[in-house]
Amino acid sequence: EPGRRVLLLGEGNFSFAASLCGAAGTHVVATCYESEEEVSGRGRAAENIRRLRDRGAEVLFSVDCAKLKDYFSPEKREFDCIYFNFPHCGRKAGVVKNRELLARFFHSSAEVLTQEGEVHVALCNGQGGTPADQPRREWHNSWQIVAVAAGAGFILSDVHPFKAETIHGYKCTGYRSQDKSFCVEGALNHVFTRSAPLPRFKPVSCEVELESQKVSFQVPQVLVDKINRGFLELNSNHPVRTIEEKLTAELSHAFSLQNTDYCLSLLHQGHLSGVCHSNIFWIILSSEETPSIEEMSNGHVDFCRDGDKNSWVKAQEGCCVSKQYCLRPSLLPYAQAVIQRGAFLPGTLHVLSGPVFRKCLIAPYSLPVFHEMVFVCAVNRGTESSCIQMLVNNIQSSIHSLHRTVSGFKLNLNLQEATSFETSELNEFAAFEHQLSKIQYFICTETDTSSSCEKHCCVGIIRTAHYELVSSEMVVVFASLNLDLLAMLICGISDWRMLWTPDSRFLRQFPRGELQLFKSFSLYPPSYVHDVSFWVPDGEQLDEVAFHTIARQVSGETVISIQLIDSFQQPETGRKSLCYRLTFQSCDRALSCQEVAEMQLLFRKEINQCLGVILR
After folding, report:
1. Where is average pLDDT lowest: 546-550, 567-571, 591-595?
2. Which range has the top average pLDDT, 233-237, 337-341, 346-350?
3. What are the phi and psi torsion angles at 299 (to 5°)?
4. Which stretches make up the FDX-ACB domain (predicted)?
């Protein structure tokens, strides 16, 4: 592209550099590991070097790819693109030495690359160790290029065939420019970009209004990057906002629509009937002065576990706890409050939207925070079935239209009776809703097993209730939709965490709120496995939700799986030992083995302190 500075490393005969040098406005800096004397007598190298210099390119010799900043003054260290074709230590160097070469190269590249720059690395077929290699080598026998690049803060954003035959005048010379050239058949070009750094979040406080008074509370650490993100605000281009808009517009054709005109509080007071205590993010507010965020971060406020309620209570000496609040786990209580307001109109479809927060086990479609859209309508007794069907038909029509526009085919969305499902078959969203109150119907998608969601993915629920406040002849219909799951299904987003990424490349794919199939900018991210084993305190059961929540927190949501792989009970003492396997993987950021090792150590420390387990 015009105006770009391109750095080429490890040139053998400079034929690749010569082929690129013709692009108007592109400044090429071509380098070689050997001296000019060693290179000039090789094939057409001297001719290519003259050609490069005649066209204004820089040609440098004896350049070590692991020390790039040493060869350029500070004002010339920013390159838009770095090419390294077929790097190799030479002779019969094994995979370990070549990985070390790549690691030093990537760290060095990070010092001379622009923020939006790219690093292109061409490797012979099989060397990279990614699924793009065909056939694919075993991981231990590959160069593990994605994991190596992650150590320097790079993610693989594209991979495509290296077509040597399409590069005019290019001739591969082999490592250290020996006569025997590399086999470029099936070779791949790997394109790396910078990753956003892994988050290191400080404690965050949030201010809300309760009972006409402003109070602040400390946001649970696992949620600090997800609170007040504004995805549903008017100027948002986020796909969950677009889907909310489209659904509202579609339903306005069939119903008289009323959006709530008051702010929904982030906090809910008291306990929700039927909901497991451990699934709630509890916030304890003191009747005395709320401690500052500095006091919280300095450890002046201690949080410990209340075994009776399985909740978190403030243990600061002299702090009088008067009321218990939680981050809202559902908009259902707010929908019920709408009914009791004087402005509630039977026959009108009232709409509420906002993020909700739930502690849950780690699973592919288990979301600790998502955007819920709730519809409330009161109809005459006996007509609720037709109201439900009309509501579902309009929801189906809108989602079908969106999905067909984006992907070109129809998404199957069905209304299924709640009695047709066992509890074990429900995803986390449906299972939690089932705790709140009786559900009549689930709104489910049916997909094949190769799809990005489960075979039966519940994205919405329907329930009815009788409220004397409206009329003894009226029945209230509630419908709830998970906008995040809908966005994933419609836009082909396989990982819920991508919806919350701070990387601007995500929202760039949805300009002006347009929906389209999402293309991941982080391909084949490396995964790492660590085991942890411990003794459970005598007479206690492990709180698995708390166990998973700690894993979410210490890893910054990079733990994607926790599996119990072994359990053992001592016959003599009855002590129980558990062994879990944690799999770490990031969907949008570079994640190195060293960072994961640090997370694992912190996880061990936290479960010992918070859950009282005895590490083995």
Report:
1. 567-571
2. 233-237
3. 85, 15
4. 523-616
Using CA atoms, how far apart are residues 133 and 159, in angstroms rounded to an integer?
10
Higher pLDDT, 152 or 430: 152
Measured distance CA(441)–CA(416) in Å, rounded: 5
Cis peptide before 135 (omega within 30 of 0): yes
Q: How far is CA 61 from the centre of its chain?
A: 43
Taking the C-alpha atoms of residue 117 and residue 104, their distance in angstroms, rounded to an integer, is 18
Q: Is the pLDDT of residue 513 over 90?
A: no
Kindly tell me the number of DSSP H helices and DSSP E strands found in the chain.
Answer: 14, 25
The dihedral sign for the CA sequence 494, 500, 501, 505:
positive
Element (H, E) at 530: strand 528-536
- How many beta carbons lie within 10 A of that of residue 389, not counting itself? 13
CATH fourth-level superfamily of 4-194? Vaccinia Virus protein VP39 (3.40.50.150)
8 Å CB contact between 312 and 306: yes
**Residue 371, SS3 per DSSP:** strand
DSSP per-residue codes, 121-148: EEE-TTTS-STTSSSPPPGGGS--HHHH
Domain over 528-615 is classified CATH 3.30.70.380: yes
Name the residue with tokens 């969907």.
587
- At residue 378, the pLDDT reads 85
Of the candidates 218, 214, 343, 208, which has an alpha carbon nearest to the alpha carbon of residue 265? 208
Assess contact for 371 and 244: CB atoms under 8 A: yes
pLDDT mean across residues, the chain:
84
Query: Do residues 188 and 263 touch, judged by C-beta distance below 8 A?
Result: no
How does residue 531 score in pLDDT terms, banded at 50, 70 and 90?
very high
Q: Element (H or E) spanning 506, and its range?
A: helix 504-507
Spatial separation of the C-alpha atoms in residues 235 and 176, rounded to whole Å: 55
What pLDDT is recorded for position 385? 85
> What are the start and end residues of each CATH 3.40.50.150 domain in the chain?
4-194
Half-sphere exposure of 432 toward its Cβ, with a 13 Å CA cutoff?
A: 29
Residue 187 DSSP symbol = -
What is the rounded distance in angstroms from the CA atom of residue 444 to the CA atom of residue 456?
Answer: 6
Residues 444 and 457: beta-carbon distance below 8 Å: yes
- What CA–CA distance (Å, rounded) separates 164 from 185? 9
Q: Is the dihedral of CA 44, 46, 52, 57 positive or negative?
A: positive
Quick check: 477 pLDDT over 70?
yes
Q: Cα–Cα–Cα angle for 466, 468, 471, nearest 5°?
A: 95
- Are 371 and 355 contacting, i.e. CB atoms less than 8 angstroms apart? yes
Tell me which residue of 192, 124, 136 sits closest to 161, measured CA to CA: 124
| C-alpha dist (Å) from residue 404 to 211, 396, 398, 481, 492 | 46, 12, 10, 19, 12
**Beta strands 348-357 and 256-259: pairing type?**
parallel
Residue with tokens 């209580």: 333
> Beta partners for 16?
none
Count of beta carbons in the 10 Å neighbourhood of residue 616: 10
Domain 231-265+328-513 -> CATH class: alpha beta
Find the mean pLDDT for residues 521-528.
Answer: 97
Start and end residues for every CATH 3.30.930.10 domain found in the chain: 231-265+328-513
Q: What is the pTM of this model?
A: 0.88
Q: How far is CA 611 from CA 157, 195, 580, in A?
A: 39, 34, 15
